[in-house]
Amino acid sequence: MDLLYRSTRSKDGAVKASQAILKGLADDGGLFVPEAVPRLDKSLEELSAMTYQETAYEVMKLFFTDFTEAELKDCINRAYDEKFDTEVIAPLVEADGTYYLELFHGATIAFKDMALSILPHLLTTSAKKNDVQNEIVILTATSGDTGKAALAGFADVKGTRIIVFYPKNGVSPIQEKQMVTQKGENTFVVGITGNFDDAQTGVKQLFGDRELADIMDKAGFQFSSANSINIGRLVPQIVYYVYAYAQLLKESKVERDEKINVVVPTGNFGNILAAYFAKNMGVPIAKLICASNENKVLYDFFETGIYDRNRDFVLTSSPSMDILISSNLERLIYLTAGADADKNAAFMSELSTAGKYEITADMRAQMKDFYGNYASEQETAEMIRTLYEKTGYVIDTHTAVAAAVCRKYRKETDDNTKVVLASTASPFKFTRSVMDAIDEKYDTMGDFELVDELSKLANVKVPGAIEEIRTAPVLHDTVCGKEEMKSVVMKFLGI
Ligand SMILES: *Cc1c(COP(=O)(O)O)cnc(C)c1O
Questions:
Q1: Known catalytic residue: 259?
Q2: Alpha helix stretches (DSSP H) within 294-376
Q3: What is the mean pLDDT of residues 28-33?
Q4: Helices 231-250 and 270-281 meet at what angle, rounded to 10?
Q5: Which atom of ligand 1 is nearest to the CA of 323?
Q6: Best residue among 266, 380, 399 to mutate for probing ligand 1, ranked by most atoms within 8 Å of CB
Q7: pLDDT of 282-298, one tens digit each?
Q8: pLDDT tens digits for 402-432?
Q9: Cα–ligand 1 centroid distance for 467 (angstroms)
Q10: Model-level pTM?
């Protein structure tokens, strides 16, 4: 029997995994959720003898039940190959008593690669399985990292085109350079004069535009999403939590069944939701520690049970977490509301009209394994500097938000449970903020000078992804207002 996926906003219309992957978002605007979270059918000891790719198969086969073994293994092997600069794909590095799970060894040196290197293959396989003839148009809003990772994943993949919208003044210089130098006939990158939420709202509107969908269908196109709302992104992210625990077990860093805490620098709530799914699959995880930057909507939510986006949007040094509407939280809301689509839909409608909602005491009780906190800009910079001074290990700004929150949590609770901390980007991706945090003297250096300095200081080779963009020509220079997104899309598609 296939595992089916339902929308978080209505009871009808359960679909198979491949259909949920193809659609991205359900027709009613809801997110697809599996009817039940499957339990791992291999023991953690068995898993600890497996490679990353083998572990990926063990996890994904339980979720993507309408894929054949050959299809799934083919997707996995195409994704997790030499694009990653280490065979282990997601290494664990111990520094100052914390296990940093380095998720940035893929093509674009941020954790989005973990899912976006496989999504194009899951998507094209899903299209074949469902006899889709249309060309698939990936439409994505990015706060910086998704964009490049999606572009890299989809560039020149037959039967697909990709359009990425990013906030023109809301990403790091390296992030922007990475995107606007993207090669590939089927790629299109657009800066918008607004913030990430504007980009994401605009993209959601285009997805919901029935008139546009008709015009596109007649011209042989259909939209799909590479954003973290796609279940084809969420599931591959569960893999590395399973893998991380299995590695700790293999290296006798934890005893059998010993619980660990997981700390995740959070924006759209996708990564930490994957950890929650891993826990529900049977990985011994105690606390799920949700770390925010100064856009601390989630911290306030876990403190009060009220989600309130009515506040100023802060531009921080961890731009991939500058988010006021964490889309994936909807899945947790739905699940803790007892998989009640009506109840969830009511909350989401309050969110879109009043900008806030309050969950029930019962739902809050079901979220007791989550702990939220945040780090200020100053605390984030201090974390980078002190960890470097103590250990020589250099972390990026997003990872530092998580590390600073982890430190707060330990101080507040005296909980000394071992910690796996999701290290979501290479420090080379946020070189300026990282180097500024370490020493003011770097302030006057150019971006690539800083890259070389960082390489010396951290004793780490400059990643290929950075070398590549040093001299690459700018290939995309379109900028538009948020109200122009639809016409820009139509123009690119020639419709
Ligand atoms: C996207 C991103 C995050 C946030 O992940 P979510 O799944 O959106 O919560 C954190 N750090 C980096 C570097 C990212 O690119």
A1: no
A2: 297-304, 329-336, 341-353, 361-366
A3: 93
A4: 60
A5: 8
A6: 266
A7: 999 999 999 999 999 99
A8: 999 999 999 999 999 999 999 999 999 999 9
A9: 23
A10: 0.93
